[in-house]
């Protein structure tokens, strides 16, 4: 099987696709101060990444949410719930962590049924 890497750099690739499954992580612009705006930013970025992988949010298989404060979970869940059509949410884990940038309140790791992106670069 071929591994496809979209926008690879020395430390990471924006998206890695293997066997039709896309893996990627989204981090908000951390100047956005509240959990709602950071969650909306991450989900908007995820939609763009899913499109690059030939997928969409209805094809998400799982998401791991890394959050810095469990007091923010209810507000994050409100944005999350509004983003999905009923019955299309993937499996999910939510873990409390300390992130590298203290201004960031969360980041999310996505796994989705994907396709082959037409704008991929780098070795396969």
Give the averaged pLDDT, no decimals: 91
Instruction: State the distance separating the first and last CA atoms.
Output: 10 Å
CATH topology assignment? 60s Ribosomal Protein L30, Chain: A
In helices, the fraction of residues equals 10-25%
Main beta sheet strand tally, sense and closure: 6 strands, mixed
The radius of gyration computed from the alpha-carbon positions, rounded to a whole number of angstroms, is 14 Å
Give the CATH architecture: 2-Layer Sandwich
| Discrete helix count | 2
Annotated CATH homologous superfamily: RutC-like
| Strand portion | 25-35%
Helix/strand order, N-terminal first: EEEHEHEE
In total, how many domains does the architecture comprise?
Answer: 1
* Unreliable stretches covering 5 or more consecutive residues: 116-124
SS class: alpha+beta
Shape: globular
Give a written overview of the molecule.
It is a single chain. The protein has 124 residues and is α+β, with helices and mostly antiparallel strands. The protein has one domain: 2-Layer Sandwich (60s Ribosomal Protein L30, Chain: A), CATH 3.30.1330. The chain contains 2 helices and 6 strands; from the N terminus they run βββαβαββ. It has helices at residues 35-52, 73-83, and strands spanning 3-8, 13-18, 21-26, 60-67, 91-96, 106-113. Strands 1-2-3-6-4-5 form a 6-stranded mixed sheet, with helices on one face. β4, α2 and β5 (91-96) form a beta-alpha-beta unit.
Summarize this structure briefly.
By secondary structure, this protein is an alpha+beta fold. The protein contains 2 helices and 6 strands, in the order E-E-E-H-E-H-E-E.
